[in-house]
Specification:
Layout (H helix, E strand, L loop, with lengths): L6 H15 L8 H6 L1 E6 L5 E7 L13 H18 L8 E9 L8 E12 L23 E10 L5 E10 L4 H5 L6
Antiparallel strand pairs: 1-2, 2-4, 3-6, 4-5, 5-6
Length: 185
């Protein structure tokens, strides 16, 4: 008899699956989200989600490999899903920076795995300095909370690393919601 997942892991997996299923057909990332399958989701040691999809010709550039824009969108979606499973924010936040590094191509028919893991959530990530002092944690915006999420993309058949990414998101929850939470992640 198979062991059942702990309730928190099952909940994280269900939440990630529901988030991907809730994308509307008018959304920019609809086709990519519909192609994703949640493989696993965990909350410890850090919130993490692993998804898979098979590359299609529609996801490729004119050279025939997975398009950099598709990789960027997949990282955006999968890191956001990892953040949402942490259940620390009411909303999914907004992107501040999204950086990708492409290392090898993926081609139509190849199955890829995308992993997103929350590395940190906290106000300290939002500190600005110098000429940019006024952009973060000001008296007008004292509770800017930032999440730092890491991503990687690999080929399922051999584990070859295709791309890595870093996604920083800002919390946009209403102030009343943020006031009731203390982040220790």
């Amino acid at each position: 008899m198979a062991e059942s997942k702990p309730a928190s892991l099952s909940h994280a997996h269900n939440l990630a699956t529901e988030m991907l299923a809730s994308v509307h057909d008018s959304d920019f990332d609809y086709n990519l989200c519909k192609a994703l399958t949640v493989v696993s989701a965990s909350l410890t040691p850090m919130p993490r989600v692993v998804t898979r999809l098979t590359v299609t010709l529609a996801m490729c550039n004119t050279v025939g490999s997975l398009h950099g824009g598709a990789i960027s969108t997949l990282f955006d979606v999968c890191t956001t899903v990892a953040l949402v499973t942490a259940r620390r924010w009411e909303m999914a936040g907004v992107t501040r920076t999204l950086s990708i590094t492409c290392l090898a191509p993926a081609f139509p028919g190849e199955e890829i795995e995308i992993e997103g893991e929350v590395a940190q959530i906290g106000k300290k990530l939002g500190k600005g300095g110098g000429r940019f002092e006024g952009l973060c944690n000001t008296p007008a915006n004292p509770a800017l909370v930032i999440a730092h999420i890491l991503a990687k993309m690999t080929l399922v058949r051999n584990g070859k690393l295709l791309a890595t990414g870093v996604h920083d998101k800002a919390n946009i929850d209403p102030p009343a919601v943020m006031a009731g939470r203390n982040s220790k992640l």
